[in-house]
Amino acid sequence: MINRDYYEILGISRSASPEEIKKAYRQAALKYHPDRNPGNKESEEKFKEAAEAYSVLIDPEKRVIYDRYGHQGLQGQGYQGFGGFDSTIFEDFGDILGNFFGFNFSEFFGGQTQSGTRVQPGRDLALEVRINLEEAAAGVEKEFSLNRPEQCPVCHGSGLKPGTRKTVCSACQGRGQVRYQQGFFTVSRTCPHCHGQGEVISTPCEECKGSGLVKQKKQLKIKIPAGIEDGTSLRINGEGEAGKQGQPRGDLYIQVRVARHPFFERKGKDLYAEVSISLTQAALGARIAVPLLNGDQEVLKIPAGVQSGEVFKIKNAGLVDIGDKRRGDLYVTVKVATPDKLDKEQKALLTRLAELRGENLNEIDRTWLEKYKNLIGRRGQ
Fold first, then answer.
1. 34-37: Cβ within 8 A, 24+ apart
2. Is 295 helix (H, G, I), strand (E, B) or coil?
3. 112-134 b/e with 16+ CB inside 10 Å = b?
4. What is the band of 103 on the pLDDT scale with cuts at 50, 70, 90?
5. Segment 244-300, tens digit of pLDDT
6. Is residue 286 part of a domain?
7. Cα 306 vs. chain centroid, distance in angstroms?
8. pLDDT confidence of 90, banded at 50, 70, 90?
9. 8 Å CB contact between 32 and 39
């Protein structure tokens, strides 16, 4: 263990924040790294000092012990100095220096990783499925074909020519890792020749050229649940590409796109629609048939004197919520359509109606002007 003061090594105050500690360590590590100072033992020692100081001060528990009891306190806790780094410190080193020097700190610092085969599933696949609003409301089953890598039927995914075996990797001698010196570190890395397997295929399968995979067409049926919203992704486990050499499949992601509807507008589980009624229907009241998304209809009673823009709710005529299964409502906005072409008789009737209501169409209507003056007057009081 180094006996110099850790704060002095990094050139920071005892009240330094974690961000200041990281910044100071990065500056020291970049300055004294062996790659920048080849053969300089003094730089190597200073690099070790900075690394040890950082590993203690960045850890809240170790820092409290060090601040209170110094180096002796850390020794009492079983801390072994430069050789006692844990995985979280490796991650910090990688964040700070990994991108700069191009190596993975978690693979060294006493630095031997466990060899073994990693599970590497096949690649995930993504598809886009387009449905209409009616299908989104009711749910639908879609069928389509995928041209995806499947396990080779000749070698059954092994990549080996039938009757042959793998051979020991000559690069790593079957260990799955290669080791070399990086300054004063001994670095272990996954063998790039066998990818950590320790074995290589010397006689590949002629059908799949050693990959263990061949492309085949696959028919799939996918159930899209009722109430699904535009842009939702569905994950289908194990329907992606087959993994190499018997590894598991990847997953299939389906992005659902719901087309816009010419009549209904959707907001969550609720639907919105707009209907036009005539001037006389608005004045006298009416009963109109409103279409529903499921193909049925609902008779909507329009009261006499309805104003353009009024909204009526039809309960449970929306979509099912995909989460709580509750059904939304349909909101119908009424728009009063003003007739733009009138014959003489229609004009006469409307003129007579205006006279009966005390309206003089030949004079300037100042009703809204008076209302505005009253509104401004009340605001100023």
1. 34/182, 34/183, 34/184, 35/101, 35/182, 35/183
2. coil
3. eeebeeeeebbeebebebebebe
4. very low
5. 777 788 899 999 999 999 999 999 999 999 999 999 999 999 999 999 999 999 999
6. yes
7. 47
8. very low
9. no
Q: Give the C-alpha separation, 342 to 161, whole Å.
A: 87
Q: What share of the chain is helix, strand, coil (3-state, %, to 5)?
A: 30, 25, 45
Tell me, yes or no, whether 316 and 367 share the same domain: no
Q: 354 lies in a domain? A: yes
- DSSP track, 98-154: IHHHTS-GGG-SS--PPP-PPP-PPPPEEEEEEE-HHHHHH-EEEEEEEEEEEE-TT
Residue 172 included in any domain: no
Residue-wise pLDDT for 306-319, tens only, equals: 999 999 999 999 99
Q: Which sign does the torsion angle of CA 89, 90, 95, 96 carry?
A: positive
Nearest to 18 by CA among 54, 49, 73, 58: 58
Total structural domains in the chain? 4
Phi-psi label, residue 316: left if phi above 0, alpha if psi -120 to 50, beta otherwise: left
Q: Which two tokens stand for residue 215?
A: 């492309």
From residue 89, alpha-carbon distances to 52, 54, 97, 132, 265 in Å are 10, 9, 12, 53, 54
219 lies in the same domain as 131: yes
Are 87 and 106 in contact by the 8 Å Cβ rule? The answer is yes
Distance CA 114, CA 117 (A): 10
Range of the domain at 291: 265-340
The pTM is what? 0.57
